[in-house]
Amino acid sequence: MPERNGKTTIVDVARAAGTSVSSASVALGGQPGVSEKTRAHIVETAKRLGYQPDQRASRLRRRRSRLLGVTFAAHQHFHAEVIENLYRSAEHRGYDLLLSATTQSRSARKAVESLLSDRCETLVLISPDIDESELEQLAERASVVTIGSHLRVPGVDSLHADDNQGVADVVDHLVGLGHSDIAYVDGGGTGEAAARREAYVASMRARGLDRHVRVLDGNPTEESGAEAATRLLESRKALPSAVFAHNDMIAFGLLLTLRSRGVAVPDEVSVVGYDNTRLAALTTVQMTTVSQDAAQLATAAVDRAIERTDNAPPAREIVSPARLVLRATTGPPRPLRDR
Question: Is the whole-model pTM more than 0.70?
Fold first, then answer.
């Protein structure tokens, strides 16, 4: 009979099959030591009882866990796409992932500690909300690879999109359409957000648009986009002809709020996001955005994580292309007299 909590153990399998626990373990582990007839009988018994091996206990018995620990923000659409590709790349290399989410009430530090306690061989941090000092301290305790972060720390691989080029392409696109009053909604205090914010300011100044530089405080959520839109609509300053957001989620919040307040997009205000998530491609959204190659970032991250597990190679910064994706939320600005 299964143990009281309802989970079938290898002891239950051995008892039902009429064999020793060691024989059941050998048979289910695919190891030599029992006849094929006995192995088939034990495997069939395990299947009938619904036995599922305890993978964590199995890893603990091995010298190598072959686990990559991944931290991510639970509410971020792009992080989910990266994880999907991480699973694909890790499985191809014979590794598995252990995920640990950050939320409003669960810090990056807590997410990391959980992974370290589970013997993850290397940590993969997706856009970690930590500073350089914290990352340095973590690198002294574990092998670390970051995705999306622009922080450079000795011994830590940094993989991210070419945000300078991606942001510059957005500004060039909008200026080419005739926009000059282009506002930007920030993504918070992470290194990734700082890089995009600085790239926006530099791109505007490079095109002689210093007086139009306007950075609105924000964080990478839809609610932040809605709040930014409300502030713009209530401000005495004229509504900008275009708004560029740190990510698609902010841009989505902007888009919905502007439309709900009767502002036509893109006729009155153009909106641009970043990440090219599935949200941006929805037929009811069709948002102009910047694509990061999630598959390329994930594959490179798994490769570097495994290299860090096997030895200690010099840290690398790997930059993937950023590509502007044009959709329906950008267009030429209305003449001032019509706005």
Answer: yes
